[in-house]
């Protein structure tokens, strides 16, 4: 994993950085509907990039392309400047990109450790694992407990079923899951949409912790106060394109909302992608 | 700003552990086990014959065919489906087994039926996964087709099976004072293997995931169709084993036997605490559910209660089990 580059918010603006993940000229059409109309995207190392946009602006489609869930009709994707292509979410994962979905994509009846390792289970060594396919539950429990502790999520036992947890804790499990396997990028699609005020606060804290550990986070959110609290840069999506990239220190919430709806025009620098 | 407040807030969140109704209901095996013990105690008191070793042995032997089939039914219900054809697959299996045995010997008979039943499972699974049809409709259709096919293959006759490899599961042996059959051993083995696969392997976790939350399973990179296909094929294999056990129990393949087997397996699964909504339950629960039905039927017979009242008792039990499941789900939401 890359070493922590926390607090680079200002220096990143002054010297050129190679984006961890970038996209240029993405197009995706569904029949007559153009969901993505030549969109660009840039995620810098160790930053929280918020992606905002009105309903139907095409931000979900953009995120799905980045997560490998949708294959674009044209356009290019790069990681660390190198071209990549994702045909499935598995491809994106193989590149270290993990996604946390808004609808709490965990299995309620399974325990926490099984959820964290779902689809990537660890088997025992030797005959028990290779022939009898036995899972190494102790290892998975221990690792999950360690990762939960790393992110300071207080859960008594990783053997308890996810359905016994609060909404915030469930989202915590989903975040731990992505942080465990997301070596390069974490994408969070409306992670607080299903949560209450206090639980949303917990998730915002988790996002900051991920950034402080050097993992860049793409945060899709409608919640402007959260976006302004946690984002280093804000990608404003409008009519299937990137309309602007702004810094929360340079714009007010109402200005950003105006950019989002097209009521105001962005500056040249913002239109060009900020820095 | 970061860190410490999170830790404190998150640590506060879970409520203190108390024994609540919802908590008890979340221990899925507890209810069925209690019901089984109560039934055994009650029948031991009201009848003289119930607790005799040969009667207990009989209950186990009577439970073998439905018990084995119920394992397959559990797998399918765990994925959120239901299999109405499972009993009909086994009955067709017995007829084909008996006729192939007459023509080409018992080894081939077992092999042919194993492949046939696995193929029928694959057809069910293929229709469910590729055409996205509801399992209820798919298996209702295959049930009807299989029932007619069985009559055609049998030509409305029954087939006596000579003693040999096909009837070996009906042979008895003695442990201490307790006489039992190899069929009972086969049933226990099927349960043991299914328990291991479901609880100790990744494939088992994926069955729960696909049944409990299909969308989350997909987003987790689980190939749901592959999981579903394996479950339906395995259920076919289990039906073949049940067909073999059925010939051990009664060495006469009858196209009209086991007509209620489909519903009886669902009864055993549901009484055993597995949720009809998928993703929740266990084969151990199903074993207990099978035994509850077996004990209830046998005990009521011993007590001189009419067959029809036994059906009423079983029906009440099914509804009670599903009601408890619903209650548990509502508490969890």
Automatic annotation (TrEMBL), chain A:
For this protein, what is any one GO molecular function term? ATP binding
> Which SUPFAM superfamilies does the annotation name?
P-loop containing nucleoside triphosphate hydrolases
Q: Which InterPro entries match?
A: AAA+_ATPase (IPR003593), ABC_carbohydrate_import_ATPase (IPR050107), ABC_transporter-like_ATP-bd (IPR003439), P-loop_NTPase (IPR027417)
Identify the domain of life: Bacteria
- Record's keyword terms, sorted: ATP-binding, Nucleotide-binding
**Signal sequence segment:** none
The protein in question is named Sugar ABC transporter ATP-binding protein
Occurrences of domain ABC transporter (ranges):
21-264
